[in-house]
Specification:
- By secondary structure, the chain is mainly alpha-helical.
- The chain has 3 domains: about 15-70, no CATH class; about 80-165; about 190-355, Intergrase catalytic core (hpI Integrase, Chain A), CATH 1.10.443.
- The chain is built from 14 helices and 5 strands.
- The strands form 2 sheets. A 3-stranded antiparallel sheet has the order 1-2-3, with no helix packed on it.
Length: about 375
């Protein structure tokens, strides 16, 4: 039901003001119509006739369901849907869109103080203290990173809504971010080897062990491993195109690197033959890492497989909780154990800024004593 309507408004016979569905209004100017309000992409307010004066309350409720589904026009879910249909949202990178969909799902599912969930809450209920409570709750329940992702999404969503007249102000502005813990984990060579051997013994996700090797030996992010194609290999070595503005480079072949590369190629060929998938003709279209179905492995699939591996390694005693590390930590381990000067390590990692080496290079320099 909608909010309590004014009883002074002269409605058609048989219509009770407090039972009207949200989002449908009576035009008492003499035009005799029921209408809805909407905003175009410029934020301009418009009205549209949906029924005449003879409509019953049941008719109006059916119209509201047909017009807006179960989402009132002043609800969080409704404004989110409008945002996701907008050209601004569609122009975002696919990864950003996916992240925003995820953030909406976890925020909309939270319980509202007035009952129900935040997805069905009314926009006028949202304010800065409410958003701060959401961020604080998510930081405790899901971690600081998830809380800050959700906050960035809410700021973007509400800025879009405020600029188009759905809100008077952005309730997410000025909200404090959750303090993220700096986890610069560095697996020891023994820990890395133990997990690598354990991964090779597992029946599922056979790609994990060679993916670990590529990430470690070439100092790659997980997504950069998934970006590799047959065109990445040459006689010189493995050509890496890095993300986040880092410089690409060529990692020379070593027996371990060649073994990991050929292992993934063999797994891919078996998957293609098993599912009778013809390989793409162009080398740059043949992704190296594929799933069991032969399709290119996605980042979410790799992340899920990694978490399953870590859970099994912890349960079997291969790792203890203090030794746990992530795929991204293999990039840090690879940079730290690259031989050479700081400048040579930076060239190998592809980082453009020397300051980033403070994050990734955890080696301790060896220096000569003072000469008298």
């Amino acid at each position: 039901m909608g909010r309590h309507r004014s009883q002074t408004l002269q409605l058609p016979p048989g219509i009770e003001a407090n039972r009207l569905p949200q989002g449908i209004y009576w035009d008492a100017s003499g035009r005799g119509r029921w209408y809805v309000i909407y905003h175009d992409e410029t934020g301009r307010r418009h009205t549209r006739r949906v029924a005449g004066p003879g409509a019953t309350l049941a008719d109006l409720q059916r119209l509201a369901t047909a017009e807006y589904g179960s989402q009132p026009t002043d609800s969080f879910a409704w404004v989110t849907e409008q945002f996701q249909r907008s050209p601004i949202f569609r122009a975002l990178a696919p990864a950003t869109q996916s992240d925003y969909h995820y953030c909406h799902a976890i925020v909309a599912a939270l319980p509202a103080r007035s009952g129900g969930t935040l997805g069905n809450s009314q926009l006028r209920q949202w304010n800065r203290p409410m958003v701060q409570r959401i961020v604080d709750h998510l930081a405790e329940a899901r971690g600081p990173s998830a809380a800050n992702h959700a906050l960035r999404y809410l700021r973007r969503l509400f800025r879009w809504a405020a600029n188009r007249g759905h809100l008077s102000e952005n309730p997410a502005e000025g909200v404090e971010t959750a303090r993220e813990r700096q986890q610069r984990r560095l697996p020891t060579p023994e820990t890395y080897r133990a997990l690598l051997d354990f991964a090779r013994q597992q029946s599922g996700s056979a790609y994990l062990a060679p993916v670990m090797e590529l990430a470690y030996l070439c100092r790659l992010r997980a997504i950069e491993v998934l970006d590799l194609t047959d065109a990445s290999a040459s006689d010189e070595g493995l050509t890496v195109v890095r993300r986040k503005g880092s410089r690409g480079n060529i990692t020379e072949w070593s027996p371990r690197l060649r073994t990991a590369w050929e292992e993934l190629q063999e797994q891919r060929q078996q998957a293609w033959e098993r599912h009778r998938r013809p390989p793409p003709l162009r080398a740059e279209e043949r992704r190296l890492v594929v799933g069991s179905d032969g399709h290119p492995l996605q980042r979410s699939g790799l992340a899920s497989a990694w978490q399953r591996l870590i859970a099994r390694a912890l349960a079997s005693g291969t790792l203890d909780p203090a030794q746990r590390f992530g795929l991204h930590d293999l990039k840090r381990a690879g940079i730290t154990r690259t031989r050479g000067t700081r400048a040579e390590k930076q060239e190998a990692s592809g980082h453009r800024s020397p300051s980033m080496m403070d994050v990734y290079d955890q080696s301790v320099p060896r220096v000569r004593p003072v000469e008298e």
